Amino acid sequence: MADKKIWVIAEIRKGNLTRSTSQLFGAAYKIADQKNLDVVGVLMGGEKSHAESLAQKASLVLWINDPGLETYEATRYFHAIWQLIESKGKPVVILASASSSGLELMPRLAIRCETGYASFCVDIWWEGSELVARRPIYGGRAYEELALIKEPALFTIRSGAFSIPGNLPNSGKVETITLTFSDDLGLKLIERKSTTSSKQELSEAECVVAGGRGLGSPENFKLLEELAQELDAAVGSSRAVVDSGWRSHDEQVGKSGKTISPDLYIAFGISGVIHHILGMNTSKVIVAINKDPEAPIFRNSDYGLVGDALEVIPVLTKELRSRR
Amino acid sequence: MKLKIAVLVKQVPDHEAMVQVKSEQELEIEDRYVCSFFDEIAVEAALNIEKNHPDAELFALSAGGKRSIDALRRAIAMGIDQVVHLGDESLEASDSNYTAQVLVARLRILQPDLVICGKQAGDDDYAAVGPMVAELLDIPHISGAVSLDTNPDLNMVNVGCEREGEIWYLESGFPLLISAEKGLAEPHVPVVTRVMKAMKANIQNIPLNELELHGNKPQGRIHRIRYVEPPSRPEVIMMQKPFPENISELVNYLQEKGILS
Ligand SMILES: Cc1cc2nc3c(=O)[nH]c(=O)nc-3n(C[C@H](O)[C@H](O)[C@H](O)COP(=O)(O)OP(=O)(O)OC[C@H]3O[C@@H](n4cnc5c(N)ncnc54)[C@H](O)[C@@H]3O)c2cc1C
Ligand SMILES: Nc1ncnc2c1ncn2[C@@H]1O[C@H](COP(=O)(O)O)[C@@H](O)[C@H]1O
Asked: Does domain B4-210 have CATH number 3.30.450.40?
């Protein structure tokens, strides 16, 4: 094993490693291969099976097996990573998803490690001895490329930015680690409430079907949910729909909602003003269905269909079903 | 207990302002600046707490060049009377770590019980300054807050925060930092008398050399190499056939593209 390491922070949601976690390995191997670095998975909490599936992707998995890490809790996770750094030494790079927990932990870690941190990265690479990250700014109206000079360089990676690497030759070891925590951690989780009706979670989904005011009523989102089921997609919505109380905020795509990059984004009855576009314009393929041929959404789409969403959705669902 | 709340605000280009890459080293930004979207929510959240606890003491802080003064005027117009402007134009090019250091230099003196900032600023979209401030102050933080309830004795808050597909309700004592997500509060449009007051207000500036900054440099850990254009999308392909044939036309395209199996 090379003595220089890249740590990949794994996340478990609903009992599985997230798709974003697998994508992190795409980023990790890209920079590891150029400099002969080892890719190490870091798993906080979870079960042995998670650690083992992670080990298929990494040369080593550091599994912090602690019941207190069962559910994510910022302070405890932060202490866990910090203790791991102190006992294992600093890696060259730490990668985490730009998820709610990644975004909470990594900036704190940057301060504690006195190092640089780049958030929402869509690409990373070496330029000589410097690691460079590309990230959108001004809601994606421009991009910046930043060099991180100190080790460990910390990054959160935007979901969808990297593909999940194919056959990895790795079958790494799992090292179980026990840490001690003080009990007084400041925050206490009282309750968790689910807010999505779709099976898929928006930022994780490979496919998103989104509805806007053009769907006419909250009831009509049923049609969209059926289509989502057919496509194994998550349901997204415009702000107008959320503000009208038709859907919950965590389904909102856009500047004041979520920024997502699925492989396929289909917008039904969404006008496509800049605030919405900023949240989805990095999707790989964008399809728009709108009854107004002049709707701005078409300027930001790969494929457009002029028509009534309420007519189109059921036919599309049927068409997809028949082709299976 | 008398609650002391500090709100962090930043002036950024409006969402609809034109932003273009002029060269690798320069952006062209249309001159339409506003108080960052989530920061106005943070201000309103502080005002909401004040409604329930009238003796709460509210502050707004902004670090940066002259433009920051406008974010503070907005905070005054909305209802926060005590505002402080930190630093100068040199901060406009600084990284989030340094910005956090500057804010913390003042926060250490103010010693607020609660710090509220925005989820992410509308310019760099970094989502880092809040957690960094919390770490420097060595206090807990909760990102993406959508609700905040204080109990009457003010020894505890219950904060709802958005997690993937869920809302988590966390209990915490003070001091605490939270970052505001949409839904935490609904910013109101300031009344004219407050806007007048804000325009006339004399805003205190604390220059960098009067802040204890522990020898940090504006760009010690990270530096921008260049700006680049966002990737562009090819011209849209419109479906040509009438309904319902245009549906199979669309599905064919997606299958050809390998996006649907
Ligand atoms: C600071 C700020 C932040 C914002 N953040 C966001 C954000 O995060 N996300 C977001 O989405 N918006 C955001 N907005 C709001 C945005 O400006 C728009 O108001 C919103 O996106 C419009 O939603 P919509 O497209 O669903 O509705 P509308 O603009 O009303 O558009 C409806 C569309 O549906 C079409 N239509 C109508 N009937 C049908 C039909 N039967 N079949 C097909 N098409 C039909 C119409 O032609 C029209 O194009 C923000 C605004 C501001 C000021
Ligand atoms: N220069 C600044 N002055 C005051 N507050 C700031 C400044 N920069 C960032 N913040 C606060 O930190 C939040 C997150 O900013 P950022 O990490 O830049 O996305 C913002 O919404 C503000 O509340």
From this structure: no
